[in-house]
């Protein structure tokens, strides 16, 4: 069965090999056993239920939380030649009935539906769709311990009991141990096997920038975006106002940006999302309301303007970058003000203790001076044996110094103010401020007033963060965020222990930004070809009204630009090009590549690359000789002859492929189902007795015969 799955993987999805654990998960589903799958965003979760659906009788019912996500996934499946539909509240009653009737006739292999819709119309949906698999996507939504709890998900537990003989597969990109256990319990999964893929997204660089002032932060972001022409990115902000303000500043700087948050009308939100998905909008400044429904594979960077409230949310949000596997960047800006605000939210909301604990973990990550990826993966129970080399700490290893005296100054000031003041007051006293609140409280008379005047306010903030992080201080959230000494802090204050602090990293990046601007950007040939291929992709996307990345991902286009496939056989070897997409789009991309390789000067002289081949053929040159003369591969020369034959420029191919060989290829085609144009299955079926080059010509003869009938 797995060999059949491998063939479908290539035919419909364009990949030669499964990713780790995909084959085992598919085999378990085909054995009608339950599975709980944890795979990072972009790790290939969907194939784990989409592929077995094509091998089983009936319909795979996919429970998905967002309408926009359903539409994207269904569009992508259709482009891959897979019959899929979705049901949701935006459709008319007649449209919904048509979808269900198509399911009943066996014309739909995957049906996407929201949990609300499934529960409301369960009897009708399951009667018409004849479920073969239930796939619960974004399964962490079922758990109140998860970071994105949705109450309607908890009502689906009875499905497992009602459909006893049907396999259930629950999938999520983010779930800690408690959430995993809760998913299995709530869905009533039967002896589910847990599959955990590595959470290590090696293609994502991790960068944390501490204590950057708001104005400088905006300047840095503008400089960052200008250095990344045409790249898509998302900037996550803590509040709606911040989203709007930042979007306006970016627009004023000439950047194609917009905001997205729950305070906007549904029409405006839909417009922003649609524009972003279709590459008409480059940057979105958003609250966490944006992203779950985004299946866009070519987001190149994520910036957190403010610190997220937990590691799960942070991991899921940065996971929206680089889903195509290409190098992508993530930046997290972290300030003391964020911590105070997030602590307030966590303390006032439900599940106070767990939310505060989760906030501490993300705070520890942000303040760490060791490999960030190790900390991130450790949170999801995964160990990284070596430092990653792709985070800011690994790239700029931290230096330490004896900070005992500096810490003692801060601790002394805090004690002399009776441990009832917050960080800003402590800093102002240490720096010797004479503002009214200080003189009124007589803090200007303290021995420690002005004891740290040589250190900037910003650096004092960052040192206080380190003291909180290593357990010298603690913050009393219920006492207006007052700083208090811990037992360790008291030992340091009284000279019983020493402490090392991390040397602060320079925050001013203006010099490096200026240096970046002086460097003239040169466009490599592969990059120029990539841009041309993007234009071809965009034309198809506009014509078919689907997002561009659904046609081909950036990773596939980059592979084309690098490998330069010049015929259908070579194109089929590119990862991400399946038989269906080859038939639908392949020739247009091949033509663009050939056109690029010919170059404008050559085009002006020769007119057309196929015409040049035709002239040499008419001079009596064999395909191999044409290839040598034109400095191309024999495969390309044969591909040109097939093209010219199909268009009537050549009357016969008999001198290159015999009618007996054509008949053998016909029989192979019939045995293989008659629809494939891929040469590898034919080549293997004929026990490699006829070469790929002759198979290419035989297919052209068969195609011409069909046209002439």
What does this structure look like?
This protein has 709 residues and is an alpha/beta fold. The chain has 4 domains: 2-196, Rossmann fold (3-Layer(aba) Sandwich); 204-395, P-loop containing nucleotide triphosphate hydrolases (Rossmann fold, 3-Layer(aba) Sandwich), CATH 3.40.50; 400-502, Arc Repressor Mutant, subunit A, CATH 1.10.10.10; 530-708, Orthogonal Bundle (DNA polymerase, domain 1). Helices cover 51% and strands 11% of the residues. It contains 35 helices and 17 strands. The strands form 4 sheets. The protein has a 7-stranded parallel beta sheet with strand order 3-4-2-5-6-1-7, sandwiched between helices. A 6-stranded parallel beta sheet has the order 8-13-12-9-11-10, sandwiched between helices. A two-stranded antiparallel ribbon has the order 14-17. Strand 15 (473-476) and strand 16 form a beta hairpin. Helix 24 (525-544) packs across helix 28 (579-598). The longest helix has 20 residues, at 525-544. It starts with a helix and ends with a helix. Mean pLDDT is 85; it is low at 507-523 and 601-607.
Characterize the overall form: elongated
Q: Specify the CATH architecture of the largest domain.
A: 3-Layer(aba) Sandwich
CATH topology of the largest domain: Rossmann fold
Main CATH class of the largest domain: Alpha Beta
Q: What is the radius of gyration computed over CA atoms, rounded to a whole number of angstroms? A: 31 Å
Tally of separate helices: 35
Count of distinct strands: 17
If you average the pLDDT, what whole number results? 85
Q: What's the structural domain tally?
A: 4
Give the proportion of residues in helices.
40-55%
Q: What is the terminal separation in angstroms?
A: 38 Å
List segments where confidence is low: pLDDT < 50 over at least 5 consecutive residues: 507-523, 601-607
Oligomer: single chain
Hey, roughly how much beta strand do the residues contain?
A: 5-15%
Largest sheet: 7 strands, parallel
Strand order in the sheet with the most strands: 3-4-2-5-6-1-7
Considering the protein shown, what is the CATH homologous superfamily of the largest domain? P-loop containing nucleotide triphosphate hydrolases
Q: Quickly give the structural class.
A: alpha/beta
């Amino acid at each position: 069965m797995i060999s059949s799955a491998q063939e479908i993987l290539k035919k419909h999805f364009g990949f030669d090999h499964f990713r780790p654990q995909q084959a085992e998960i598919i085999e378990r589903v085909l054995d009608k056993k339950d599975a709980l799958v944890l795979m990072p965003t972009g790790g290939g979760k969907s194939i784990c239920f989409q592929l077995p659906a094509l091998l089983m009788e009936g319909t795979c019912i996919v429970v998905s939380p967002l309408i926009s996500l359903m539409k994207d996934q269904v569009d992508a499946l259709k482009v891959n030649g897979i019959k899929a539909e979705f049901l949701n509240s935006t459709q008319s009653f007649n449209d919904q009935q048509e979808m269900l009737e198509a399911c009943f006739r066996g014309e739909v292999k995957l049906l996407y539906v929201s949990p609300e819709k499934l529960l409301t119309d369960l009897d009708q949906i399951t009667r018409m769709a004849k479920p073969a698999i239930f796939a619960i996507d974004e399964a962490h939504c079922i758990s109140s311990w998860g970071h994105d709890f949705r109450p309607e998900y908890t009502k689906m537990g009875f499905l497992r009991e009602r459909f006893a003989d049907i396999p259930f597969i629950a999938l999520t990109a983010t779930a800690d141990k408690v959430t995993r256990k809760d998913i299995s319990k709530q869905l009533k999964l039967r002896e589910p096997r847990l599959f955990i893929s590595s959470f290590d997204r090696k293609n994502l660089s991790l960068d944390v920038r501490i204590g950057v002032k708001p104005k400088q932060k905006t300047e840095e972001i503008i400089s960052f975006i200008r250095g990344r022409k045409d790249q898509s990115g998302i900037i996550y902000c803590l509040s709606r106002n911040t989203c709007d303000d930042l979007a306006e500043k970016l627009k004023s700087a000439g950047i194609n940006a917009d905001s997205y948050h729950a305070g906007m009308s549904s029409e405006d939100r839909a417009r922003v999302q649609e524009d972003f998905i279709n590459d008409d909008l480059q940057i979105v400044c958003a609250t966490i309301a944006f992203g779950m429904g985004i299946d866009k594979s070519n987001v190149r960077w994520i910036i957190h303007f403010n610190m997220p409230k937990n590691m799960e949310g942070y991991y899921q949000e940065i996971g929206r970058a680089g889903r195509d596997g290409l190098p992508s960047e993530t930046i997290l800006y972290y300030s003391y003000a964020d911590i105070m605000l997030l602590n307030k939210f966590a303390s006032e909301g439900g599940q106070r203790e767990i939310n505060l604990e989760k906030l501490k973990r993300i705070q520890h990550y942000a303040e760490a001076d060791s490999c960030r990826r190790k900390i991130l993966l450790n949170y999801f129970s995964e160990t990284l044996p070596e430092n990653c080399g792709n985070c800011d700490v690994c790239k700029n290893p931290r230096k330490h110094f004896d900070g005992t005296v500096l810490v003692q100054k801060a601790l002394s000031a805090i004690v002399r103010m009776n441990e009832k003041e917050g960080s800003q007051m402590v800093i102002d006293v240490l720096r010797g401020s004479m503002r009214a609140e200080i003189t009124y409280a007589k803090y200007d008379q303290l021995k420690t007033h002005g004891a740290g005047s040589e250190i900037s306010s910003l650096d004092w903030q960052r040192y206080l963060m380190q003291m909180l992080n290593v357990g010298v201080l603690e913050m009393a959230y219920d006492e207006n965020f007052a700083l208090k000494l811990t037992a360790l802090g008291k030992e340091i204050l009284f000279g019983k222990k020493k402490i090392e602090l991390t040397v602060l990293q320079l925050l001013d990046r203006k010099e490096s930004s200026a240096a970046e601007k002086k460097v003239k950007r040169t466009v490599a040939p592969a990059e120029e070809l990539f841009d041309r291929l993007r234009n071809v992709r965009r034309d198809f996307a506009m014509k078919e009204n689907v997002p561009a990345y659904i046609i081909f991902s950036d990773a596939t286009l980059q592979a084309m630009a690098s490998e330069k496939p010049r015929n259908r056989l070579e194109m089929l070897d590119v990862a991400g090009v399946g038989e269906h997409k080859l038939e639908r789009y392949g020739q247009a991309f091949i033509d663009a590549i050939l056109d690029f390789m010919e170059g404008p000067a050559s085009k002006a002289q020769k007119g057309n690359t196929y015409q040049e081949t035709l002239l040499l053929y008419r001079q009596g040159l064999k395909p191999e000789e044409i290839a040598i003369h034109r400095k191309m591969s024999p495969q390309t020369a044969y591909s040109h002859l097939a093209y010219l034959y199909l268009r009537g420029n050549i009357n016969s191919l008999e001198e290159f492929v015999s009618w007996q060989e054509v008949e053998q290829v016909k029989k192979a085609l019939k045995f293989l189902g008659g629809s494939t144009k891929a040469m590898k299955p034919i080549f293997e079926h004929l026990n490699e007795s006829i070469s790929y080059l002759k198979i290419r010509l035989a297919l052209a003869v068969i195609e011409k015969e069909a046209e002439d009938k």
